[in-house]
Every structure is written in C-alpha cells, then in structure tokens.
Amino acid sequence: MIVGGIDVITLTATLMGASTPVLLAATGELVAEKSGVLNLGVEGMMIIGAVAGFAAAVTTGNPVLGFVAGALAGALLATLFAALTQLLLSNQVATGLALTLFGLGLSALIGKGYEGVRPPGTPKLDFGPLSDIPVLGRILFSHDWVVYLSLLLVALVWFVLRFTRAGLILRAVGESHDAAHALGYRVVAVRFAALAFGGALAGLGGAYLSLVRVPQWTEGMTAGAGWIALAIVVFASWRPWRVLLGAYLFGGITALQLQLQAAGYAIPVHILSMAPYLVTIVVLVILSAIHRHGVQAAPACLGKPFHASS
Amino acid sequence: MNRRSFLKTSAATAVVAGAGLPAFAADEPLKIGFIYVGPVGDMGWSYQHDQGRKAIEAEYGDKVKTSFIENVPEGPDAERALTQLALEGNKLIFATSFGFMDAVMNVAKKFPDVKFEHATGYKRADNVATYDAKFYQGRAIQGTIGGRMTKTNKIGYIGSFPIPEVYQGINAAYLAAKKVNPDVEMKVVWAYTWFDPAKEADAASALIADGVDVLLQHTDSTAPQAKAQEAGNVITFGQASDMSSFAPKPRVSSTIDNWAPYYVKRAGAVMDGTWKSEATWGGIDTGMVEIGEISDAVPADVKAEALQLKDDIAAGKAHPFTGPLNKQDGSAFLAEGEVATDEQLQSMTFYVEGITAEPPK
C-alpha cells in the first residue's frame, strides 16, 4: 500500500518499534505522577537502563536478561529518588533534574568499554501464518516481544488505575495525600512503589533503545527521549490511551519525516525535523481541550511534599 | 608517615623536580596532544585518528609522549581543551574535527611556539597547518560497486551536514554508479549529525523502507550497518574505519581514513625542525584514503572493476569528476574532458545533474 511515495504499511510497522522506548517511559511516568510525585529524572533512568541492559546482554549473551537488568537499574535509580524526596523531603524538581544529570554521567562511566560492541539480537516473535495476512500481518505480527509487552502494560495500567482497588488507592494518594493518610493508607510506601514501577519502565525503554532500536551503546544516546516522555504524559492529560496515541504519533511523524526526505519531497529539512514535536503537542492539546468538562487533569497533589505530621 | 613529614617530603620533591627540569630539557620527549570530537571507541572517525596517535608512539617510542582528550564538543569547550593541552607542554597539537577550526585559530595565536594541525579545515597560520583526505575517491569506488549490485536501482546516502565534503561524496558516488548503471537513482537523507546512532539508525530504516538496497553513510557510527543487516538484502560500506565486524555482508567494502603516515611524518618534522604550515589533501595515491577489502558478497567481475578504478584513480588516469558534467539545475560545471580542480571541489555545495533530491537550504 503506497500513498504518495510512502509505504504506509512499512511506516506503521516502523513507528511501533520506534515509539516503544518513549511509550514505556511515559507509561511509567504516568503511574508515578498519578501517585502525586513529579519525577523529572526520566531521561537519567532511561539512559541508566540503556547502559545496564546493554552491559548485561553483552556479558551474558542473553537479551532477555539485558531487559531485566535495564528495568532493575531504572527502578534502583527511581528508589534513590524516592528516598530523597519521600523520606528526606528534598525538592522534587531539583532532585529530578539532578537524577537526570547523575544518570547521564554515571552511564557514560559504566559504558566505557562497551562502545562499538554489538549486542546479541532480539528476534521478532514468530506468529507463523498470522504474519502472512495482508496488511495486518505486517503491522501487527512482525515485532519483537517488547513491543507487545509495552502495549500490554498500557492496557494493564489503564485497567488497574480505573477498575481496581489498588488503582483507587494510588489515585487517592495522588489527589489528596492528607485524606489518604487519614484513611490509613501508607502514602510514602505507595509512592515508593509507584516510583519504582516508573523507573523500571523507563529503564526498560532505555534498554530497548540500546538493544533493539539502534542497537549499540553510545554516551547520551537517549538524546532527550525522556523529556519527550514527560511532555507526552502532560499533554495526554495523564490518561494511558492518550499516552499511547501521543507516543505513536510522535514516533510515527519522526519516521515519516525521514521517509519524506528519502522520497525526495521538497520540504525544508528543518520544518520536517520540527514536525513531530509540533504535531504531537497540537493534537494532544486539542484532545484535552475537547474533553475538559471543567476537571483538573493533573493529580491535585502532584509535586507537593508530604509528611505524616502535617 | 604523618602529615607534617609528608608535606616536607613532597615539598622537597617538588623543589628537586623544579630544579632538575632545565637540565633534562634536551632529552625530554616531544609532547603531542590530540582532541577528538567523539569517543575513541566510535569505531569510525575518532577511532581512526587515535590509530594515528598510536602509530606515532610506535614509530618514535620514548622520544614522544602523546595524550588525548575525547568527546570534545565543537564550540567554546574546544578552546578550553586546546589551551589545556598547550599549557601541559604539548608542542604539537592535532585538532581532528572541522568544527574546531576557530578554536584552533584562537589558541594558536596565544601559543606561537606550539604547532597546530587541524583536520578538514581551511584556515591556516604560521603555526597552524591543515590536512584532509579525498574521501570522494573512495565514494566513486563504492558507487561503482553499488551501481552494479543494486536490484532496485536505488542507492541511499545518509548525509551528515550539507558541506562540500559531503556533497563531493554524494556526487562522486552517484556519477560512478550512473556510469555502470544508467537507471540508478540517488536517495539522500540528512541526519544533521556526525555521530548519533539512534538518528543514523532511523535514517537508515527510512531509506531501506523506501526501497534502497545499497546504503552509503557519511556519519560515523555502525548503527546503519546494524539496520542493513536486519533488513537482510542491503549492502553497506564501512565509513572512516573498516567496520569489518559487519563483513562480508552487509558491509562489502569500506573507505578507511589512514592518518598514521601523515601523523608520523608531521611529528618527525617537528623533531627535526622542518615543520612548516601547509595544506595537505591526500588521496588513494598517498595512502591517506584506503579501500577496505572487498568481500566475497561482491561478484568477481564487479570486484575487479572496482579495483581497476582504484588503481586508475591512484595513478591519476581517472578522476571521479571529469567533464562533461552539469550541475543539478542544468548549468555547466565541467567542459568535455575537464577535470575538477581542488578549489572547485572544496567549494562544492550543489548536486550534479541527474540527482532528483532537493538540496537542503
């Protein structure tokens, strides 16, 4: 299926892989923010996940262990953030920024010696005859397992937040930590868990970047993907399915602009490079403007410090 | 050792060392410094420069002492890094990226007795020399192999920045490919980076999605090679370094920047006092541009043709830019039989006739 010189099927298949790191990180950050904590360290957690995942996969020769290590490393860094902001009550914005800088520096240090090394490959899942279905086969059944895991996680987060008691508690902590505390919920423990989950997903996203999407380790290779994830959470009004839409839109236009260049369209390169940011923001802003209903989209306690004595 | 006696000892050592310095000056090794734009482990551009540094050490042993600073961003920080190297007593400093140009000129003014060598630049001074390699010669050989081997008749090129060096590469590859395959088409994607594996991988994916089955890169990482391998039926060429870990396929050959002979020569010139500021632009003939082994994935006759072209270029019998040749807009560039001069090539910022892509503005 070719429209205007662009193969739409290939584009759709490409964008799913290209968007996965940002999607994972944004889904994780959504959960953290729903619990009322603003963690600006997504970029740092992603790159730590990227280097830890890469190192583990190269050392063991097993990409799955790489993803596990990436998630653990991200969660570990997030736990550090949680200890600083929840127990020592440090400023969340400053601590998050510091976490990003720390992650970038530490990853560069760990990554020495892994430059120019090739990681073991992550194969595409084999769906047998399913992947031979015209159009849908290429789009839906031609990916590696992490892509499906990321979609599953979006659905899971949506379901848990909306339909389960655990989700309700998490949201309660994010909306009013004092009320949740008065009801006997352990605010700090819930936030620790939410942050660690967010960190694990960011680390997983980073590992996907270094193990599948590039696949290679380089200093600073996340190149701002963590900040994109943060922005997508805000513009998606903290809703999981809109995060998915935002991430795929961003990844899709990023892939599309390169294909437009390849197809020889006479559009200035700089406008094309700007397009992913512009279109994603515009679409998500319009969406949240339509569905406002006068409700504040952000969790009411987002970024506010909590101490049981207050 | 308590603190006081430690202080005494170290003070004494410092005095001895200070007093001893002038006496040893005659035997002191020549200190040579390098700054790199990327990590030495990039397996491409900076890696090759570091090989040159090691060649100096291997050649002169104790007579030289080299050091390097990697990952120096192009901009004000380069000036700090160069100043630091000069203050540390380096008498010869290699700055190995185009964007270090103004930093080199500024620092060179402050240290007139330090010799500077700037790669791929064009600004010189009494103590600043420039050197570059004719990468486009390698591109012509890649174009020949690509033109013969493409099945889709589409050759992809990942451009870094729209500067003459990259235009030379795109044009040389296209002209050589078209000579052996008139139906060939050139697809260009500009990445606007020298080294960003994620971006390079995306650019490679986009070109492959567009039907390209021969992929040339003007960026330094091996990410496009990995993407080509994943796609299966795409061939690539190593850039700056051999990238032989991707041989025999997708990487079927490479252009290797061999700075070692030049670096050894220039270090020697400083030691025997014959160093002077000049501009060097070496090609296949001087060994500065090397063609990496052509793998078995290339049919024997194509390989022979490519090697013949390499010999002809080295012998001066062939030139990738030989007239009649028009620019993309149809205006004349070279007349029948005319060969492009170095000056013409060094200011080349246009596509040649036949390339349909739009040059970036």
TrEMBL record, chain A:
Location within or outside the cell: Cell membrane
CDD domains per the UniProt record, alphabetical: TM_PBP1_transp_TpRbsC_like
Membrane topology (UniProt): Multi-pass membrane protein
UniProt keyword Transmembrane helix present: yes
TM annotation in the entry: 6-25, 37-58, 64-84, 96-114, 145-161, 192-211, 217-236, 243-260, 266-287
One annotated Gene Ontology cellular component of this protein: plasma membrane
Keyword Membrane found: yes
Keywords: Cell membrane, Membrane, Transmembrane, Transmembrane helix
Gene Ontology molecular functions: transmembrane transporter activity
Listed name of the protein: Monosacharide ABC transporter permease
UniProt source species: Thioclava atlantica
Lineage: Bacteria, Pseudomonadati, Pseudomonadota, Alphaproteobacteria, Rhodobacterales
TrEMBL record, chain B:
Cleavable signal peptide: 1-25
Domain ABC transporter substrate-binding protein PnrA-like, first and last residues per copy: 31-310
Pfam families on file: Bmp, TAT_signal
Listed GO CC annotations: plasma membrane
Record's keyword terms, sorted: Lipoprotein, Signal
Superkingdom as given in the UniProt entry: Bacteria
Protein name: Basic membrane lipoprotein family
Originating species: Thioclava atlantica
